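ok trying again, last paste got cut off:
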Amino acid sequence: MAELIPVDPFDLIIFGGNGDLASRKLIPALYHRFCDGQISRDSRIIGVGRESLSRQEYIEKTRQSLISVNPKLEEQAFRNFAEIIEYIELDALKSDSWMSLVDLLEGHEDKIRAAYLATHPSLFGPIAQGLSHNALILENMRIVLEKPVGHDHDSAQAINNAVGACFKESQIFRIDHYLGKETVQNLLALRFGNSLFEPLWRREVIDHVQITVAEDLGVENRIEFYNKIGALRDMVQNHLLQLVCLVAMEPPSSLGDDAVRDEKIKVLRALKAINASEVNTTTVRGQYAAGAIRNNAVKSYAEQISESSETETFVAIKLEIDNWRWSGIPFYLRTGKRLEKKYSEILIQFKQVPHSIFDSSHFSTQPNRLSIMLQPDEGIKLNIMAKEPGPGGFKLKPVSLDLSFEETFGVHYPDSYERLLMEVFRGNQALFMRRDEVETAWQWIDGILEGWSITGQPIEHYTAGSWGPTGASIMLDRDDRRWGSGY
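nice, full thing came through this time. structure:
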């Protein structure tokens, strides 16, 4: 197991400290790192919200959040953790409500200071301005922007301009929690730490790439937000395109902050635009209807929001990268809610052997495939052809070489926010998105949205608990391909 190196003492201000993200992800992540000794008792976690709560009431709220994650919460460990928790009532849009935060931070200028904006993106600019107007921005300060940064290119640019007017780019951390997953990090090790794979990572050897992010949950308590966003903006613009970048990018000169991001932006700029003339054959929009997941009845999306909606809860895309390494090789992306199970995978499908020397009347060889599993179980699986043992003739059988990170290394990190928060305090931006990445990704997404608007591409309904609309399978059928092992 890698050594757990403590971070320097910090003051972390969580705007939206009462919200769902803070309760489900941020507080548990910080608690786990505190229990492992990476966070010192000189640090402080300051929840900020518009709700009027005493410090003790907020501590009890965080306790309940942790119990929901781990019912066997160790009470003494939590009491120690609670000593570093504070709470401030603050409305970022009211200039006269900032003084309590100013007073709380006074005298702590020697610590690392970080502001985590777990709020609606429309508040990113006003919060940055509030921090600036109240002289709370220090040289060693960082600001963390939760995704999505905007809802299109223009809104993303406006947010970046507003935050950038107060903070230097080196202080801005645009978070995408997929970049903190162990398996995503291991993709870099797999490609660039092994001479076996990198020579094969090219169009002459690879047939196509699939990236799947499937969820069995619905929109839950994000209805109002999600109905304005949809799957394309919520998942593809950030999570899936970031995975595309890591799969497709050229070897960086190092793992430094900008070395990796310089290569990722080249991939985004090389994405072939999808316009109105081809959007109907290269994209599929879906929305879940009523069904059942694990024998539990599930309402349709329309029933859940109590109105008719054209918001997509599923999207599949065939994209191409116009560069030397990947020209002509399709990348198939799909993501959706209320699918059969929670499952995320990057699948590298290699080409068939050019000539088979084996008796095709009895069996056929299958092309090799490399599966990089992101959730629920992180690991890597390589499918190869092998001879069945025994004297019964020469028979081939596909077998898997499996690597489970939890079994191999004896450690399991339940959430990528743990890694990313530590990187914020260390000031390491390599795992975060740069401004040009965000805006370039939005430009590409805007082209699809415009194509949908021009063509009036309809929503295809799929049964909750299924694997999505049939149109997603038809899209691959046209290319004589099939979705991979996850389904």
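cool. The chain has two domains: 10-146, 179-414+434-477. The CA atoms of residues 125 and 159 lie 6 Å apart.
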